[in-house]
Amino acid sequence: MECIDNIREVFINFGRDHFDEKNVTQLNHALQCAYLAEKENSTPALITASLLHDIGHLINENARSSIEHGIDAEHEEKAAEFLMPWFGDDVLCPIRWHVDAKRYLTATDPEYFSLLSEGSVKSLEVQGGPFSKKEVREFEKIPYFEDAVKLRRWDEQAKSPSKATPPLEHFVTYIHQSVKT
C-alpha cells in the first residue's frame, strides 16, 4: 500500500533524528505518542494521528532552522497536506490542531504549562503563545478539537529516552484501518 510505504520511508530516513527534544528521536516520540493513545483505547484514527502528528517535521528539511530562527515551520499543516491523499478528517484534524491544542491548554489549564518540555515552551512562543479567551471559545467549536487536546497531552508525555513501545509495524494495522476508502 502506497500510504504505508511512504510513511515507513519517512520514518526510516528521518525518524532517527532528534528535534528539539534532545533525548528522544522523532520515531521514538511518535511511537510513544501512539502507544499512549492505544493504551487509552482510542480509535484507530486517533492512534494513527498520534503516530503521525509530527511527520511534518520529518518531511521539512528546514524545520529545525525555522524554530531556531523564531519562525513557525507550521509542521502540523505540512503533515496534514502530506497525509491528505490517504486520510479523512478523523486523522487530519487532530494533527492539524495539535499545536493550537497546546495554545488552548496553556490558556485553560493552569498546570499544563509546567508540563511542557523546553522545546515545547520555545515553540509555544513562536506559535503565538496561549490563546485569548475569544480564541479558546472558537477552538472549542472546531471539529475534533477534543481529539486534538488528547493528542496534545500525549505529545507532552511522549518524550522519554527510555520508554519501551511496540515497533512501528505494530501500528500499521491502525493505519490500514484509518485509510479513507
Structure write-up:
- By secondary structure, this protein is mainly alpha-helical.
- The protein has a single domain, classed as Orthogonal Bundle (Hypothetical protein af1432).
- 66% of the residues lie in helices and 0% in strands.
- The chain has 12 helices and no strands.
- The chain has helices at residues 2-14, 26-39, 44-52, 55-59, 63-68, 75-83, 89-108, 112-115, 118-126, 133-139, 145-157, 168-178.
- Helix 7 packs antiparallel against helix 10.
- The longest helix has 20 residues, at 89-108.
- The protein is globular.
How are the SSEs ordered, and which strands pair?
Blueprint: H1 2-14, H2 26-39, H3 44-52, H4 55-59, H5 63-68, H6 75-83, H7 89-108, H8 112-115, H9 118-126, H10 133-139, H11 145-157, H12 168-178
Helix pairs in contact: 2-3, 2-11, 3-7, 3-12, 6-7, 7-10, 7-11
Instruction: Report the CATH superfamily.
Output: Hypothetical protein af1432
Total DSSP E strands = 0
- Uncertain parts: none
The rough form would be described as: globular
Residues in helix, %: 55-70%
Kindly report the oligomeric state of this protein. single chain
Summary?
With 181 residues, the chain is mainly alpha-helical. The chain has twelve helices and no strands. It has a single domain, classed as Hypothetical protein af1432 (Orthogonal Bundle), CATH 1.10.3210.10.
